[in-house]
Amino acid sequence: MATKSLVITLMLPHRTLAVSSIYSMTKRNFHQGTINNFEFSKISELKKRREFYGKQLVGYSMEQMYSVVSDVENYYQFVPFCKKSMVYNKKDGFLTADLVIGFPPLSEKYTSNVTMTRPSLVRAECNDGRLFSYLLNHWKFSPGVKDIPQSCVIEFAVSFQFKSAIHSQLANFFFDQLVVQMEAAFVDEAEERYGKPAIKSHVLEATSRVI
Hints:
Blueprint: E1 9-12, E2 15-18, H1 19-32, E3 34-35, E4 38-39, H2 43-46, E5 50-58, H3 62-69, H4 75-78, E6 82-91, E7 94-103, E8 106-117, E9 121-126, E10 132-143, E11 152-162, H5 165-194, E12 202-210
Antiparallel strand pairs: 1-2, 3-4, 5-11, 5-12, 6-7, 7-8, 8-9, 9-10, 10-11
Helix pairs in contact: 1-5, 3-5
């Protein structure tokens, strides 16, 4: 399977900035004592927990989507910004994975504990304290259209808090775009594996917040 490459850019008035450019700009401002007009005394305000919840109807079965989402060892092939995915301590309904995420010049590794209930649930949690103070990804799969067995409803929720103020500020720029692209990447991978969907995907709900 060919490796996919996704690039996130932000459309601003009169210019387009790549994520790597935003990171460099943010880091430079950080060392100068400000981050987008924030004083160092307000850095703690940046390090808030961010949450996203999405719900959509897709043209793939619960089993098919579960197989894609639970295939953690191959995340590096299709998940945006995932450079490496190494699985160990694998047993029935559970695995531990070391994931490397990055885009130049950022590259970070974290450990995720993944629990799975086939074919309805995949839950990944990170508490290793290196990159994230907290990270939770939660996938739930339920039956879709009654007369179309190759369909299901996906509920995707992510909650995280970076340890670094620089990473937190970077997330301010592209969090919503990233989680939407990440969710879409799993549906795209399902199409790579199983062919065209039985029905067109429909977004049923999408919300995000900072707490």
